[in-house]
UniProtKB/TrEMBL annotation:
PANTHER family linked to this entry: SENSOR HISTIDINE KINASE YPDA
Keyword line: Kinase, Membrane, Transferase, Transmembrane, Transmembrane helix
GO molecular function: phosphorelay sensor kinase activity
The UniProt record lists the keyword Transmembrane: yes
InterPro entries assigned: Bact_2-comp_sensor_kinase, HATPase_C_sf, HATPase_dom, Sig_transdc_His_kin_internal
Pfam families: HATPase_c, His_kinase
Record carries keyword Transferase: yes
Protein name according to UniProt: Sensor histidine kinase
Superkingdom per UniProt: Bacteria
Membrane-spanning segments: 12-38, 44-65
Limits of the Histidine kinase/HSP90-like ATPase domain: 221-340
Classification via SMART domains: HATPase_c
């Protein structure tokens, strides 16, 4: 095919020799018509190619959307349904190897802990209420009887008996009463005073009791704390520290407040604890408060249960810490958030 300059610049001539006859076959093509035809075909097929490309991109997007969005949503929906019919451990195990993000697993773990914590609080509360009910057989009869004894002691000029009976009545009224589970530090200290007064009569002044306040204000008195937090600590100091000591001893309270915390330290110079005993107590105090263990020592609530109550109410960073040296003494440090009564 050749293009010749014959005055027909818009024409293309195509020729070929005919085998038989020596003739020359010539065809003439209009360039403009040819280009127009070619453009038309290219445009038609180009649209088809573009359409196929767009369809491919759309299908790819839908597959990606299905894998990363739809599938996790369906897994989440199925998981939520499963929670109502299966245990948490089963649900978390099913999610472990799934493409769903770890956030769902963390949410379920926190929810599980929350449910266990709530259950533990209920069990501890029920155990505490049951313990109170055991000693709540007609409390008014008990109060009235103690008041009669106190009255008779005053008539007989036996002021020690009258004083001890009054302390005993106040102690029972405070512990048996259901007015409030939260009290002020001042109320807790008053209850400790009554308890110590009773024990000093029993132990014939074997120990002395002092309170040291490291606070320039009277603000500490209005700090809120759970009822029956301090008395079990004092009871432990008397029966596991002072009682076994030869001679007299001391029990000291040290009260410190910061901007965010109330710290009460109960120190005694009793017989202390051996290292292995202290390690065993530390293990119990440091274990999760989810492990319900409502134990008693005599008629008092065990220290580890006081610690569990504080951790459940305020968080694991709060609670009880004990330090002790054999034949030297012990210190029990109680740390709770500083919440004032008028701030509630």
């Amino acid at each position: 095919m050749k293009k010749r300059n014959t005055g027909f610049q818009d024409r293309v001539f195509k020729y070929a020799k005919v085998v038989f006859g020596g003739l020359l076959a010539i065809s003439v093509i209009n360039i403009i018509v040819f280009i127009s035809f070619a453009n038309e075909k290219l445009s038609k097929y180009g649209y088809c190619i573009l359409l196929l490309l767009e369809i491919s991109i759309l299908i790819t997007f839908l597959l990606i959307f299905q894998h990363y969005v739809i599938k996790p949503i369906r897994v989440l929906e199925g998981t939520i349904r499963t929670i109502n019919h299966a245990s948490f451990d089963y649900v978390l195990e099913e999610l472990e190897d799934d493409s769903l993000t770890d956030s769902l697993t963390r949410i379920l773990e926190e929810y599980k802990k929350s449910m266990v914590r709530e259950h533990t609080e209920i069990v501890l509360r029920q155990e505490s209420e049951y313990a109170q009910l055991q000693s709540q057989i007609n409390p008014h009869f008990l109060y009235n009887t103690l008041e009669v004894v106190r009255g008779q002691a005053l008539i007989d000029d036996n002021y020690k008996i009258a004083d001890m009976t009054e302390a005993l009545a106040k102690y029972f009224r405070y512990n048996i009463g259901k007015d409030n589970d939260k009290v002020t530090l001042s109320e807790e200290i008053d209850n400790v005073y009554n308890y110590i007064k009773i024990q000093q009569y029993r132990f014939a002044d074997k120990f002395t009791f002092h309170i040291y306040v490291h606070d320039d204000t009277e603000e500490y008195k209005n700090c809120i704390m759970p009822k029956m937090t301090l008395q079990p600590i004092v009871e432990n100091a008397i029966f596991h520290g002072i009682e076994g000591k030869i001679g007299t001893g001391t029990i000291d309270f040290h009260i410190v407040t910061t901007e965010e915390r109330l710290i009460v330290t109960v120190a005694d110079d009793g017989i202390g604890m051996k290292e292995e005993t202290l390690e065993e107590i530390h293990k119990k105090l440091n274990q999760s408060p989810m492990v319900v263990s409502y134990k008693k020592k005599g008629n008092g609530i065990a220290i580890e249960n006081v610690n569990n109550r504080l951790k459940l109410l305020f968080g694991k960073e709060y609670g009880i810490h004990i330090s002790s040296t054999w034949m030297v003494g012990s210190e029990v440090e109680i740390t709770i958030p500083k919440v004032l009564k008028d701030m509630k």
